[in-house]
Design brief:
Blueprint (H helix, E strand, L loop, with lengths): L2 E5 L3 H13 L3 E5 L2 H11 L3 E5 L7 H9 L9 E5 L6 H9 L4 E4 L4 H12 L2
Parallel strand pairs: 1-2, 1-3, 3-4, 4-5
């Protein structure tokens, strides 16, 4: 069973997504800020990270950059999420430059997220 780290400061979003992803057969852990995300990655070695951009303590860009620049973690796929609105191509470009493997805007179709997870995990 693949392990996914879900990083978002909106607790209700985490509860809903955790339930959906567990129902899809994934093991889920959560972090609610950027520093906690870094700590959890080092402790748990997830197979994939779903990472919000706007986070307390360290934003998603910095978390992504820090993980992707570390040989121990650079192979972990990262899906960046943002609620900043559709059509912000610059944010998508910046996220990819920081090393994100995929970029979705909220609200998104759960099927789209599950499809992207399967693609990135090679399942």
């Amino acid at each position: 069973m693949a392990k996914i780290l879900l990083v978002d400061d909106e607790k209700n979003f985490v509860i809903v997504m955790k339930s959906r992803l567990e129902n899809a057969g994934y093991e889920i852990s959560a972090a609610y800020d950027g520093l906690e995300a870094i700590e959890k990655v080092s402790q748990e070695r997830p197979d994939l990270i779903i990472l919000d951009l706007v986070l307390p303590k360290m934003d998603g860009y910095k978390v992504c950059q820090k993980l992707k620049s570390d040989d121990k973690y650079k192979g972990i796929p990262i899906i960046m999420l943002t609620a900043r609105g559709k059509g912000l191509d610059l944010e998508r470009i910046v996220a990819m430059e920081f090393g994100a493997d995929a970029y979705l805007t909220k609200p998104f179709e759960p099927k789209e997220l599950l499809s992207k997870i399967k693609e990135l995990l090679g399942a």
